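Our working data are protein records whose layout never changes between entries. The record below serves as our worked example for the rest of this section:
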Amino acid sequence: MQLDAAAAAAGYRLASHETLGSTNAEALALARRGERGPLWITAQRQTAGRGRRGNAWVSPPGNLYATLLLGDPAPAEYAPESSFVTALAVHDAIVELAPGLRDALALKWPNDILCGGAKLAGILIEGERVADKFAVAIGVGVNCLHHPEQTAYPATDLAAAGAPISAENLFAALSRRMVERLAQWAKGAGFAAVRADWMARAAGIGGEMRVRLSGREFFGRFEALDEQGRLLLRLADGSLQAITAGEVFPLAGAPPPARPPATGRVD
């Protein structure tokens, strides 16, 4: 793996490994030992990769497994917004290398990238206070050559979508796009612009969906994101439910992803 020159010039560093248990776990372990970043940690394979809510993340060689460790990237209450920032950067990087996939790509709340309606990439944000700093590990997993079968949500990979992009090339593009998107976010001050860009690429806005939380479910229409990045779901009784975290499944009749507008992007 190699950083893009723009990322290196911005002070980002890279620790590349053949095998790790988890790039996120490695990043947080380094933070506890005094590392403040910005540091990318990559692995060719993970033996204990994980997704949100403790789900396992299958990690065969050939896919991208990377974590960006940042020290105090924003006030702690704004840290969850980095998931939207990262989703945009991953989207940007894929479109840069495979522009023909633009219309097939969409962002699924809160932290997935879809291709043709199937999951292509996921993001895991983990934070920890270490001494007087708040360390954030931004984990990115992209299915480049392989994807799992028989998952709760359909999955795909770049090669299957007709874009055989190597993990190395995708990482280089992502390292530069993250610099750009983090600058746009400006430690939380620019989230309104990030939110607008995310909404322009969102899957399912205006469509009916099921949102699964621990022990309960909601059914309703996906209306928007609020100013904190929560999903706003219009329930059958007309009330508006703000969802902070959950698993989202579109129901029949959901509209297809909209093509991003020609303006308002970081290019």
